[in-house]
Give the backbone structure.
Amino acid sequence: MSHLDNTRYNQGPNETLYTFAGYPSIKIYKSETGSAWANHLLFGDYIRIKSLDIVNGRVKAKSRNRNGWVKVNEIQRQRVLEVNFVDIGQGDGCHIVTPDDQHIIVDAGMTDNMNRYLTWRFYLYYKTKPLPFPFISVISHSDKDHYKGFQQVFDNKCIRFSHVYHNGLVERPGPEPLGTKENGYITGLVETNDQMNVLLSDANNRTGTRSTYCKTLYKALKANPNIRFESLARKDEFMEGFSDNNRINDQEFSIKILGPVTKEVNGKDALKSISNLGKDKNGHSVIIKVHYGKASILLGGDVNTEFGEILHHYYEQNNILDELKVDVAKACHHGSNHFYYKFIEDINSAATVISSGDDESYAHPRPDAIGAFGKCGYGVKPLVFSTELARSNKEITFGKLETIAKYFGTIKTKKEEIKALKEAGQSADSEEIKKLKKKITDLNKKINSFATKFGMINLRTDGKKMIIAQKYERDSASGKWDIHQLEYSEATKRFELKE
């Protein structure tokens, strides 16, 4: 009997053997023969190898909690870049996994959906110790639908952060909520770790109106006193540890800072103010460009009309407009109509991902924004994705939303029962309370599955090939994923949609 060659798999701790799904997707088959499949895996999905024995060109494997068989010629040893646009409802939330297994969270929405996603992704239900690696956080700006969801994430004892990056505008109580102003510029930026620690240690900044952002950041500090807070701006060029000299799998992996753009005013870094709190916050969002191999992805917070124009002119005047051009872009401001058309033209992405939610008073994504993303996109058929549209599937429709509501109601009841038992003197380790806690965990598993993964837009790339995938509303004969393939062309120097 032949055995799987070691160029197809890796060996981890405790002699664990693992590999990854090949491009663009593969199946876990139910047996060593036949076409019946147990699961449909995306490019780069983790696979545990259970036996090296090859039977009919397949080996025993397990992935996404399913056992079966995978074809030898459809697996690869090398990991890919993941950019997961998480469905966090109204707001933004993105989970980046680098090919060398670093984890970056860019925004976390307003509610607990990001925490639910991470709990589902890393199966944290019964864990009490932190994961063996730290996360990096990037908060694009201080709007609640981008940062408030970090409260639950920072409170999660299994998740620890080494850094929190931000735009330097730390909203707080007081007459100048974003910092001191001089001559139409905000000069009171919070740029260093020491400055942030001083700000957060003042209890007055964590009380009253406009204190939620400081309260959220303080949770990160309380969870890890050694955490580093650093602002990001164009002048920094790259995120620390992710310069263009950084290489993974013999390809460049970098995270470039495209905004906000600071100016020196009276010897201090400053950001322009248009005397509108909301627009100043949004317009100076952190903009990062993730670059791996030939692939580039833009994440741009809530850049609006006024500051989109400022950014366009800055890059135009410095003759560096090409820096704004990318293959995939997260739509700024959830598909709002507050955008600068030329800035969208500058980006010229082959695919745009809109993160928006239900039950909001903005009607995101707006028709003119969707039209502009298509018209300004690269290629004959630019792609436009929406987490809100991707959420439309059998797991959520056909009465499942009512089911989720019942789950939440049951959880509340179970928690009240536990509280009553404890007040009656029963130990937290009693069998009755243990059963109630297990029931709560089981219900949360179902909610996390329903409420997080089904609206997610999944991007995977090895730097030369790329897929962007969303779930079908119902499984088809070909699988459960609607997959769009893009491949880099040496002729056009762009990623081209593969028909």
Observations:
- The chain has two domains: 1-78, 81-390.
- The longest strand covers residues 465-476.
